[in-house]
DNA sequence: CGATGGCTTGATGGCCTTCAAATATGGTGG
DNA sequence: CCACCATATTTGAAGGCCATCAAGCCATCG
């Protein structure tokens, strides 16, 4: 089995160059954790005490509305981070639930360790600045898509942007992510496959 | 007239504590610019060469679809930053347009100066990390709202979250921001005012 | 196997868009 | 400062997209 930290550093090195000393320093702030499929990583109402790097597997974060419908906020797979930011930063009760779509391995970073790491390793401050900066650009695009595209356009765009991950997700989760009903995705698929026999 | 930099530093100080030396250092990276109402700050296809701090006034960034409809991505008023991130970071052609809703005063920060400032003033790296982090939490909420709320809920939420700014915006811009037609907002307003005579 | 969860298909209806036209508002130039 | 004209808002009518409800099928897995 590959060392989970190899996966972490491989992703960090894409944005900043860490020395071996930095890496050894940083490792101490993380705590590995395994999650089985369907297991919660966070439940609404709890405080989100850490952000999680996904070394392996796939998780989702979502909001339950008053009718019990799931509205997916984010999928996180290898190389992505996941948390309820608002709760993590401000210590407020989480509005989101998070759970594992597949068996997963996480690296947990507590708020204390996050703050300490950023203070002690300036390159990590930079890493997160760049990470967040890029995430903002992504979310901008998603927001515009949510507000301006039809169901069919949204689904096609999702498949185009996330061709690999879409294969690991059941359709009803993609539907929830796009703000559509599972039935609508089913009908769109049928329509598309009819167009190209 | 108040110094535009006073406004900038007042906002930065909410997140990090700058020394007077830092402030004098930082000032040199910015260039003030005034925009009249309706004037473009950026046009689609150009490269977004700088991010802008809004010292005074109000701007919007938006995307034009193939039918010429405006889909507003962001409003930026005193204390906010505005740019086409993707274009700014990667030097790609901007997908967004930006223009002034009111006469405005900006502080421009070019890509070179941005990079240099972040390298030379670690506290600014921290400032932007925190700024982006908070923006992500905001966008998360907006995305969930876009995908799960009715038109009426979205409008009510907007008024609740941005009571002051909503007064400075024509309704059709709020509609565009929420992914709704101007007519829908008009009808919602009528309905609400009928409920409380 | 039985049961559970996911996918499909049909029928119905509601929310919101679109189109159109009338009215109100407000910025701008004379 | 006023008159004008472009722009914003309102209102009505028609229709389409997509959700909801319901039922049946299919695959997986304990």
Architecture blueprint of SSEs:
Two copies of one chain form a homodimer.
Chain A: H1 4-12, H2 20-27, E1 30-35, E2 40-42, E3 50-56, E4 58-64, E5 70-77, E6 81-82, H3 85-90, E7 97-100, E8 104-110, H4 111-120, H5 122-148, H6 151-161, H7 165-168, H8 171-178, H9 182-195
Antiparallel strand pairs in A: 1-8, 2-7, 3-6, 3-8, 4-5, 4-7
Chain B binds a DNA duplex (30 and 30 nucleotides) through helix 9.
Task: Tell me what you see in this structure.
- Chains A, B: It comes from Sphingobacterium suaedae.
- The structure is a homodimer of 197-residue chains.
- Chain A has a 4-stranded antiparallel β-sheet. A 4-stranded antiparallel β-sheet of chain A has the order 2-7-4-5.
- Chain A is globular, with a radius of gyration of 18 Å.
- Chain A contains 9 helices and 8 strands.
- Helices cover 49% and strands 22% of the residues of chain A.
- In chain A, helix 4 crosses helix 5.
- Chain A is α+β, with helices and mostly antiparallel strands.
- Chain A has helices at 4-12, 20-27, 85-90, 111-120, 122-148, 151-161, 165-168, 171-178, 182-195; strands at residues 30-35, 40-42, 50-56, 58-64, 70-77, 81-82, 97-100, 104-110.
- Chain B binds a DNA duplex (30 and 30 nucleotides) through helix 9.
């Amino acid at each position: 089995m590959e060392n989970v930290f190899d996966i972490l550093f491989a992703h960090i090195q894409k944005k900043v160059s860490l020395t071996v000393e930095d890496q050894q320093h940083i490792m101490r702030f993380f705590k590995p954790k395994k999650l089985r499929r369907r297991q919660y990583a966070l439940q609404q109402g709890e405080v989100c005490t850490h952000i999680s790097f996904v070394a392996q597997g796939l998780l989702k974060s979502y909001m339950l509305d008053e009718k019990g419908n799931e509205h997916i906020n984010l999928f996180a797979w290898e190389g992505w981070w996941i948390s309820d930011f608002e709760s993590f930063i401000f210590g407020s009760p989480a509005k989101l639930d998070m759970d594992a779509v597949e068996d997963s391995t996480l690296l947990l970073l507590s708020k204390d360790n996050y703050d300490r790491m950023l203070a002690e390793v300036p390159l990590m401050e930079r890493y997160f600045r760049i990470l967040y900066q890029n995430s903002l650009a992504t979310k901008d695009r998603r927001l515009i898509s949510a507000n301006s595209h039809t169901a069919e356009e949204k689904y096609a765009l999702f498949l185009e942007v996330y061709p690999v991950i879409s294969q690991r997700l059941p359709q009803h989760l993609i539907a929830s992510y796009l703000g559509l009903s599972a039935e609508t995705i089913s009908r769109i698929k049928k329509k598309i496959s009819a167009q190209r026999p």
